[in-house]
Amino acid sequence: MRIVIVNPNTTASMTAKIGAAAQSVAGAGTEVIAVNPPDGPVSIEGYVDEAYSVPGLLAEIRRQPADAYIIACFDDTGLEAARCVTESPVIGIGEAAFHIASLLAGKFSVITTLSRSIPAIEHNLVKYGLDRRCAKVRAAEVPVLELEDPTSDAATRIATEIEQAKAADRCEAIVLGCAGMADLAASLSRTHGLPVIDGVAAAVELAESVVALGLKTSRLGGYAPPRAKPYTGRFAREAP
Amino acid sequence: MRIVIVNPNTTASMTAKIGAAAQSVAGAGTEVIAVNPPDGPVSIEGYVDEAYSVPGLLAEIRRQPADAYIIACFDDTGLEAARCVTESPVIGIGEAAFHIASLLAGKFSVITTLSRSIPAIEHNLVKYGLDRRCAKVRAAEVPVLELEDPTSDAATRIATEIEQAKAADRCEAIVLGCAGMADLAASLSRTHGLPVIDGVAAAVELAESVVALGLKTSRLGGYAPPRAKPYTGRFAREAP
Amino acid sequence: MRIVIVNPNTTASMTAKIGAAAQSVAGAGTEVIAVNPPDGPVSIEGYVDEAYSVPGLLAEIRRQPADAYIIACFDDTGLEAARCVTESPVIGIGEAAFHIASLLAGKFSVITTLSRSIPAIEHNLVKYGLDRRCAKVRAAEVPVLELEDPTSDAATRIATEIEQAKAADRCEAIVLGCAGMADLAASLSRTHGLPVIDGVAAAVELAESVVALGLKTSRLGGYAPPRAKPYTGRFAREAP
Amino acid sequence: MRIVIVNPNTTASMTAKIGAAAQSVAGAGTEVIAVNPPDGPVSIEGYVDEAYSVPGLLAEIRRQPADAYIIACFDDTGLEAARCVTESPVIGIGEAAFHIASLLAGKFSVITTLSRSIPAIEHNLVKYGLDRRCAKVRAAEVPVLELEDPTSDAATRIATEIEQAKAADRCEAIVLGCAGMADLAASLSRTHGLPVIDGVAAAVELAESVVALGLKTSRLGGYAPPRAKPYTGRFAREAP
Amino acid sequence: MRIVIVNPNTTASMTAKIGAAAQSVAGAGTEVIAVNPPDGPVSIEGYVDEAYSVPGLLAEIRRQPADAYIIACFDDTGLEAARCVTESPVIGIGEAAFHIASLLAGKFSVITTLSRSIPAIEHNLVKYGLDRRCAKVRAAEVPVLELEDPTSDAATRIATEIEQAKAADRCEAIVLGCAGMADLAASLSRTHGLPVIDGVAAAVELAESVVALGLKTSRLGGYAPPRAKPYTGRFAREAP
Amino acid sequence: MRIVIVNPNTTASMTAKIGAAAQSVAGAGTEVIAVNPPDGPVSIEGYVDEAYSVPGLLAEIRRQPADAYIIACFDDTGLEAARCVTESPVIGIGEAAFHIASLLAGKFSVITTLSRSIPAIEHNLVKYGLDRRCAKVRAAEVPVLELEDPTSDAATRIATEIEQAKAADRCEAIVLGCAGMADLAASLSRTHGLPVIDGVAAAVELAESVVALGLKTSRLGGYAPPRAKPYTGRFAREAP
């Protein structure tokens, strides 16, 4: 099975870290290809960065044949559009983490990077229906690329936020709200005594699951393939 | 007052029609500039077209100073990102129509173009909170550009759908779910005996309203200005 | 265009202040008539005051021809009944503020006068669907008529509550929850660095908007004109 | 125990019928006093009639000492205001029927008189939280006073609507949506083979229940006693 | 009228206390029989205890003819199953307390025994639709059987939690979340100045109410009588 | 990895079919043990059957060590209690199907066996938050054990219901609402042209996923291990 995991930002070191995290949980027969587009923001922190990452993301999905795709941004950037351009299942790491957390705990809290990302995550939770399972979305106020910096105190700030979530939110599990936190889940879980879910690993498992089930994205409704039509200007060659 | 209305698709004839509709309801002191980006799909019918229209949309907003902006696609394509790149208020024609309808009727039904567009509209209604006011989102199964074709039977199909909505949905008003239907609202309202709301006109009024109130988009939370950072590849020059 | 703004309480000085606030934002061609009924409570603070203000409110609406009406009590007292007695649009200042705030911010908090008014406002938010957009309804514990008293510390208490809302509610805008706060919005917005919405001004803009759009209240469903029937006793002459 | 049941419309024959229905289910030690105000509409069919019935309703409650009050209009007209003017519990027949139905069935449908009354009932269900238990609110299109006319075919139309509700709504019980239907419940239940709940009887039982429990309406929050203040004009003597 | 109240745990002293509390509020013509099954947990504190109490509970209901049944565990353990095995109404003390509180207050908070019981109560509130009326579910961290111990400080801890609920939840009434607290309601209500509702007493009143109304549980939908079929092993004789 | 799948009814042929379906999708290194309790109903069709199946289900889980457990009844019978008696993850086939369907389609409809099972499934969807993703729960009116009978027309009735769901519900995927339908999913998906999800296969994949992720059920909140206490009578030896 071949899974392509797309980091929709253009920071190759983060792509490598995500790829390693993904491969480490993948099954024996699963090949994980981690890619990022050449075009777009070096990190995704808010709606504007999201918008500029989607054309590159869709191009990677179209370029890379795969049994399933993973979008490795916690905002599930471009998820609906991606589902329209391929029959193969597409999993967002945000939704993956929410679904897995829902199997292990009544309510979970999310710890993301920056406050500005909270509304987009809350919108996704409402869209997925899983806002009812989420106690609170919190921000550790750690910029995304600081997670790549071994000298940063990001881990401490995340740990502090987890303790506050346990005390104040009545949450039973933690979802880590950024692909760049993928390497922290196991040790945080041990330290804080509750399930801590990383979306990258969760998405690999769910992607393998839907492929093993022989299921494809529905072609009815919103995920129907795009209608053939001209695109103009710099997107002309990306027309459906 | 200067209002820039951006048609996020690249069909100039539709932009002209939208601009005329907008100017016709604007106040005496309001200058309406209707533009469309050079890059992107010729019509927006689903998530993929949406994704490729946003970079062009944001470029138009950055290029054109204005007291307020209107996004003239009923999906409110790129609305959140647009709100981050300018302090001036940004109004989507979808949200505008929903808010105006809520002032005139307990419940409204939406008539959009194609079924594939229904889920995105439903998601927006949930995000805005106004799903509770919407009886049903319906599709007349009319492609967007057919609305530009005077020989099409699009108007008949829309009228049929309105009658079905009145009979089956217990709706008290109709929202027209495409910028290309802007010229139909008044006659449909007379014919069917209930308020029929066009989002383009509604958005012009709401844009004028927020400007007159001296209000700007909040810079707290999700609409904070984008963080300065490099963008790579073909989007390098569009970095915040 | 002629807009009649009805202060449903009987305090003429408050009516004058509301009228001045309304006229100051109205367009050049808009005549604003501010009235209050002769019968009823001197201020509206809870369900009983509301109940006794509605007959007078309806009488004013029937007596005064207008292109649109505004109900200048934040509880939107009598709004549904008012919509039944006239085809002209009727806008409540509460709903107006909520809709305008929703165009500028993801979530807003409301600062009203007294705690006893919070449940009615929360009910309205649920009825309108906009509870999902409201972070919290707060009370500054300022009686309505104290807002008319220049020596009161009402402004300070409101400012304190705004700061608490910013810190604790993750709100991105503030809605002022009383017609008597109409004169405070602009300076509070500057001081606290977020949009502060006054319902009186918001309602004037929305009333002008729906009139400019040529729209009337729906006659289907709950806002159908009242059925002709006898009323007895002191209300005999107010029968539909 | 003394229960005052107020028919908020001014039709004495309907008050008598309601009183008889109420007394017939009341306990041995319960005295039921059925009254109606002298002022207001002869029937309540929509928001305007509601508005003009509340001052008379409140006057009756203040005039008549009681251990508990019942408001015998299915819209629960003036319920919140009534709870403020007396410590004794006040029960609306609409809420009473919904609560009792929720003890006997997963979901219920409501059969009311006229379509125009549906939105107010739906708002109440949302306010009470019991919209989740209601499959559908239906109208038999029977004016209220036609229920007083023994030659009308109202009973047939209600029966037809119940059969449609059973077939289409997956409802497990029926709530009769008008005080004037109080005498029909038992026979409809036998005929249609499911619980049919009349709000008048339900309210009598719930009023007796809360009195037996020694409970009073909360004085905190929205039901706090009205603040002392002047009322002007024809309501001057009804000031709190 | 004969009401059987089943304490689904096997602690006879608690059954006796519940029975006395129930009889004390019952009407003159009501015989209250308090029973508990011989099989199962000595107290119900969480999902596992619930599961093992239901077969005994159902056996008691089948064994004891009654006009109505009450399930005297605040989790409403086995309520749906119980409604299938008898036509007579079955009332849970949890739902009873929520419904009665909703007649007296806009919002209530619940004080239960242990944190582990909170999620089950929250699920019930969502299922009943009354989560919208509940400000917060709180735990006093008092094990169930400690309520039977006169030397415990349980009452103090409950009082403390009520004061916190008043200060922080904006609640207008308190629901006591355990059958073992039945004897505390009246004095807590006096001390804390708001309605305090005990589910045992509430359920007796509601059981009497539905019997007086001549109503039975619906046989349509989920409460249909169980289909005849073999049960195997130790439950063979309990097959429907 | 060792997965124990418990069929909570006592029909061994159905257990065998479920076991075969589960093993057929399990990974190479996964051993699937399918068991059923000796005690309880031969099929689960409604709340009473559910109640009598849980003690046997819990006993099987305690008796059989495993890396993960699956409850093979679409009602997710006993799921919460099961999560308390083991640290290993426990997956219900109902929730599994809902979560997998949510990754492939905007909205799904459920086709279950009998109408009486619909309310329990709807309650679960609300509890999980995924009611927002479910277009409708439908019943093919096929008793569970008829699915074991090769001469029955069950498959035809299910196919008919799927076509009605596609036409009327705007659903984009189908969830099969009974473990006994596990063998039908693939062919129904091909025939009807949309994803058809079987909960047994979905649960196997999710169980493998959470085990591969190294995650356990949270011990905080509702899934805390049961408190040690006596159980009496026939359940004495099953005390925690």
UniProtKB/TrEMBL annotation, chains A, B, C, D, E, F:
<dbReference type="GO" id="GO:0036348">
    <property type="term" value="F:hydantoin racemase activity"/>
</dbReference>
<dbReference type="InterPro" id="IPR015942">
    <property type="entry name" value="Asp/Glu/hydantoin_racemase"/>
</dbReference>
<comment type="similarity">
    <text>Belongs to the HyuE racemase family.</text>
</comment>
<protein>
    <recommendedName>
        <fullName>Hydantoin racemase</fullName>
        <ecNumber>5.1.99.5</ecNumber>
    </recommendedName>
</protein>
<dbReference type="GO" id="GO:0047661">
    <property type="term" value="F:amino-acid racemase activity"/>
</dbReference>
<dbReference type="Pfam" id="PF01177">
    <property type="entry name" value="Asp_Glu_race"/>
</dbReference>
<dbReference type="InterPro" id="IPR052186">
    <property type="entry name" value="Hydantoin_racemase-like"/>
</dbReference>
<dbReference type="InterPro" id="IPR053714">
    <property type="entry name" value="Iso_Racemase_Enz_sf"/>
</dbReference>
